[in-house]
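#struct-pred
JK: can someone run the complex with zinc ion? inputs below
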Amino acid sequence: MKIDEHDVLLVIDVQNDFFPGGALAVPLGDEVIAPIHRIAPRFEHIVLTQDWHPSNHFSFAASHPGKEPYDSIEVNYGTQTFWPPHCVQGTRGAEFHPALELTQAELILRKGFRPQIDSYSAFFENDRTTPTGLAGYLKERGLTRVFLAGLAYDYCVGYSALDARRLGLPAFVLRDACRAIDLNGSVAAIEGEFAKEGVGMLESFELIEKS
Ligand code: VGL
Ligand code: ZN
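RT: done, structure tokens with the ligand placed:
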């Protein structure tokens, strides 16, 4: 697939806490760095997202006495999984991994900063109605196709891809540039949604440089 000036690479949550040894470690999360560095030069436009929670965030098990990490409850916007505290604003865990070198990125979008609601997607919070502003940004800049890489495949990458489709944007997940948490069948579930909503799957070698 040929990349052009209307395409954007969305690099999702490549932050210390999602790396091995981090607070919410994604298995083999460090392996996304090499493919991301390989594909980045093919894109004229790159946006980074940063999970960015207050220390008492609703999604943290520690905010709910008696709950353990990875328990879940039903809330008004669907199922909320409780996570170990992670990506707390201003902490080292919330910083981009130091090996990530994407100084050319044009926007860093923070999400998950509202204390009472989680935000997996780069476009909408988990109520799927509160916007982050990214849709307007892409529209105003004429960026019409979205390619996704980063962490975690079955959460923030997947929700972002599905929301891109809901907004009418072609969306392609670069499978080898993502790693998954895989909690209670979350990989199979997100891939079922990808098939239904028309999210494309690519391997990074399939991207061809703009000519
Ligand atoms: C993520 C769970 C909680 C992610 C963020 O980046 O996929 N997952 N917060
Ligand atoms: Zn989070």
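RT: quick notes.
The chain has a mean pLDDT of 96.
The pocket of zinc ion (ligand 2) is lined by residues 51, 53, 59, 86-87, 112 (CB under 6 Å).
JK: thanks, will look after standup
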